Amino acid sequence: IDSIQNFYRVYSGVNKKSADRVEKFLKTIISTKDYPLTRLKNTNSTELSKVLENSFRAMNIAFMVEWSRYAEESSVDLYEVVEAIRMRPTHKNIMLPGIGVGGYCLTKDPLLASWSKQNLFSSSSGLSMSENAVTTNHNMPYYAFQQFKSLFKDSKIENKKIFMLGVSYAPDVGDTRYTPVELMYRLLMKNSCELYLSDPFINFWEETQQTVSKNYNDINKINPDAIIISTGHSEYKENKNLIETILKSEPLIIYDTVGALNDREISSLSQSHLVKVLGRGDI
Fold first, then answer.
1. 37: exposed, middle or buried (C-beta count within 10 Å: 0-12, 13-18, 19+)?
2. Higher pLDDT, 273 or 121
């Protein structure tokens, strides 16, 4: 509800009368005092603004997917580099590495825009960069899985106990629609892994029909072979209790796909565990 009421919105109508009525209606929902409405010239403009915004975000993420692999190959901490770049006000919106893209919008809107260009407006070509961004983001969980699999070195991943921290598609939301964690989950299941799921915002994962625990302290009861931090929830960052819980475990593999662990935590955990952070080639 907060994301609906407290956010900038565009609107339009098929004529002035309808646009005025839309404005009147939106003012009953949106906190327009703090988030003024923007009237665009026509309804095509309002629809295009939606798919353009989401396509931009999808491409920004895909761009970072490509560079995260480059950073890993060149022994660079991409999180450190991005934070340094973000010091420039014009570069605040550069993304961080991650396991992929989920949610209802970014996974489809670039494709919807490309389809409309070709089918509604008689254009022979689509939006190739937007389409490629969707493909790149969709394939990221495959890459993350292969990297995780390689951490077992001589041993096989089959029948390993894996504890996954986070199943929602974005930090601090209880939403699993098109979450990239699902593909990672299914790849692990396909390889006969024994999976345990935890998420502070999810009780039941509808897409997989799995019950999800809110308690990461189960790690010590289960004694897993590996932990995957698969969603960047605030609860997993700068959390002494989580780190202490993991430190009490037998030696295991910790695979951080979202940069939740800081250097101090990585150093502490690395004394008894194997730690890998997606997008970091320096460890």
1. middle
2. 273
Q: Vertex 244, ends 243 and 248: CA angle to 5°? A: 115
Structure tokens at 9: 């919105």
More confident of the two residues 153 and 117: 117
- Poorest-pLDDT segment among 59-73, 118-132, 258-272: 118-132
Q: Tell me the mean pLDDT in the region 215-227.
A: 91
Q: Name the amino acid, one letter, at 120.
A: L
254 — phi, psi (to 5°)? -115, 115
CB 101 within 8 A of CB 107: yes
Q: Tokens 């689509």 appear where?
A: 126
User: Cβ of 87: how many Cβ atoms within 10 Å?
Assistant: 8
Q: What is the pLDDT of residue 97?
A: 87
Task: Provide the CA 71 distance to its chain's centre, in angstroms.
Answer: 19
CA dist 18 and 24 (Å) reads 10
Tokens of 22: 């839309």
Residues contacting residue 283 through CB under 8 Å, at least 6 positions apart:
77, 266, 270, 275, 276, 277
pLDDT above 80: residue 122? no
d(CA 209, CA 195): 13
Burial label, 177 (beta-carbon count in 10 A; 0-12, 13-18, 19+): middle
Give the bridge partners for 254, in sequence order: 227, 275
Q: What's the mean pLDDT when you consider all of the chain?
A: 94
- Do the beta carbons of residue 259 and residue 277 sit within 8 Å? yes
* Residue 130 scores a pLDDT above 80: yes
Q: Which of 14-28, 42-56, 96-110, 179-193 comes out lowest in average pLDDT?
A: 96-110
CB 276 within 8 A of CB 261: no
3 state DSSP class of 194:
strand
